Write the structure tokens for this entry.
Amino acid sequence: MLKANYHKHILKFNFPAGTSRGVLSEKTSWFIDLYDEQNPKVAGRGECSLIKGLSPDPETGYEEMLAHVCSEPHRFLSFSEPDLDSFPSIRFGLEMAWKDLSGGGKGVLFESDFTEGLSGIPINGLIWMAPKQNMLQQIKQRIDEGFTCIKMKIGALDFDEEIDLLRFIRKEFHPDIIQLRVDANGALTPDEALEKLKRLSDFQLHSIEQPVKPRNWQIMAALCEQTPLPIALDEELFALGADANKSNLLKTIIPQYLVLKPSMLGGFEKTQEWIDLADSINIGWWVTSALESNIGLNALAQWTYTLNNSMHHGLGTGKLFSNNVPAKLFIENGYLRFHPNV
């Protein structure tokens, strides 16, 4: 008989993490431990990651739902229970724990050259919102660390200051050397979005994530049709009703890319549905963490490697927290790698 328990872990940021929606100093994760009562020493661990104000899971009743799942884990392992539809992070945490338990509870969920330490995953270097000089320092540091893809959050500073930062990067580094992505987190208004996209396109950006707020399908469709630079959908994919209308959403908006966060989409299988649909209509995609601890990041990285997608993924969040859990992951010259023998 399978048993499960859970506990809360509040992750503390090493610095004020600025986004267009405010500054984060901490975030909550819940760890699920899944085991067979006949062999309780072997357990699989999963993570339910929540970002206040961004995660689609309801905050009210969250722990009650988690307790319910852990009281009857066998019932929910089909992952088809409608009760889990509103709690994608819990679905993902349980799926993660089950994958880990199935592999012997050793933290290897998907065996590959990555978990053998033979290959790595290209990742972007993330630049958090901060005063201009701080962001400039972050940019220089990421480049010195060997990153060839930089992702910068925009929408909180004066737009001209953000343009100046992009101008600095492009003055120093040609697009063939440094790939630039920006993430607006829905901060642009529909009236200004196209004009700002035109200004941003001067810097030969790879893409912009979620320029306007989700659930504005027609506005986003018009932007994707007229945009001078590629648009990637992010929050749009886990807005209310998106999961049930995947095909209609993508065929209406026709974005250039998708940014896939399994914690917010309901896990590996649910995210694979988006991938299959995107591939069928020639929409590109990459995988991004949702500020998980190293428990979730480890699972995400191992799964992402098996997808054989050579794009830069958003999996460089392992050093964000002062009280992260130990991990076999490390970053080297812009690649996320795995230490099999640590």
